[in-house]
Amino acid sequence: PDGAVPVPREATTVAGFPPIEVIEMAEDQDDVVLVVPAKVNLSDWGLLTFVGPLQTRIENGRESLYQCTALLTVALDLRSKESQLRRAALYDDLTGLANRTLFMEQLQRTVLRAERHPDYRFAVLFLDLDGFKKINDTLGHTAGDEVLVEVARRITESVRRNDLVGRFGGDEFLVLLDGLVTPESTDEVAARFREAMLHPITAGGHAIRVRVSVGVWTSADGLCSAEEVLRHADNAMYRAKSARDESLVR
Question: Most exposed among 13, 101, 170, 200, judged by the fewest C-beta atoms under 10 Å?
Answer without folding.
Answer: 13
